[in-house]
Amino acid sequence: RKEVEQDPGPFNVPEGATVAFNCTYSNSASQSFFWYRQDCRKEPKLLMSVYSSGNEDGRFTAQLNRASQYISLLIRDSKLSDSATYLCVVKRPGYSTLTFGKGTMLLVSP
Amino acid sequence: ETGVTQTPRHLVMGMTNKKSLKCEQHLGHNAMYWYKQSAKKPLELMFVYNFKEQTENNSVPSRFSPECPNSSHLFLHLHTLQPEDSALYLCASSQGGDRLNTEAFFGQGTRLTVV
To answer: How many CB atoms lie within 10 A of CB B9?
Structure first.
């Protein structure tokens, strides 16, 4: 089982739609979780951290399910500008390294 | 404006050339990373430096040689590369150690083309 797994997509949704991505991780001792966004030919940028109790930032909601070892990202009222690849990132304890998933591509159309 | 600066932004080099990529971070971080991202492929971790010590080398060919003279600077020395080494090379930094919630910040990358 890969350390961090994501559905590569692409997810094609119309503007205004709600879309959700899931990501699973293999190491139950993982402690820190993030969602990054990467635009085409650009560097990844932090979208939001994921907290145990779940957290929301505007139209974006992140959830963590430790029992099932997955995190999710919900995007409400999708905008054209949300089109990007969303990377799931996990940090294992005892390591400085962040492990990136392969990313899920989102395409929002008019 | 990013706190992680990479130079050059674009580089074209022949297979017999020697070149170096430079990364500088102004965030006071102690961990720095090199990642490779080939076209339509995920990020591949190459090297990790934590407090100037190399802590990870993900089976990277010896034609890639990293150098970390201090916590703020990271280099990737390139020699006798192959065309398949053409990719976006991304540098990142984070707080380092085992601190929780230490997200990484990326530079804008060097787009390398080997001809």
So the answer is: 11
Question: Would you call A53 an interface residue with chain B, using a CB distance cutoff of 8 Å?
Answer: no
Query: Chain A residues with CB inside 8 Å of B100's CB?
Result: 31-32, 91
CA distance A91 to chain B (A): 8
Instruction: Please calculate the CA angle A64-A70-A76 and round it to the nearest 5 degrees.
Output: 60
The answer to whether A78 and A110 are in contact (CB under 8 A) is no
The CA-atom distances, in angstroms, between B37 and each of A25, A73, A82, B40, B111 are 21, 23, 21, 8, 9
CA distance B46 to A100: 13
Q: What is the pLDDT of residues B28-43, one digit of tens each?
A: 998 899 999 998 777 8
CA distance B53 to B72: 13
pLDDT in tens, A12-55: 999 999 999 999 999 888 888 999 999 988 999 999 999 889 99
Which residues on adjacent β-strands are paired with residue A28? none
Task: Using the predicted structure, report yes or no on whether residue B1 has a pLDDT greater than 60.
Answer: no
CA distance A48 to A109: 24
A26, A29, A32, A36: CA torsion to nearest 10: -10
| B56 — pLDDT class (breaks 50, 70, 90) | confident
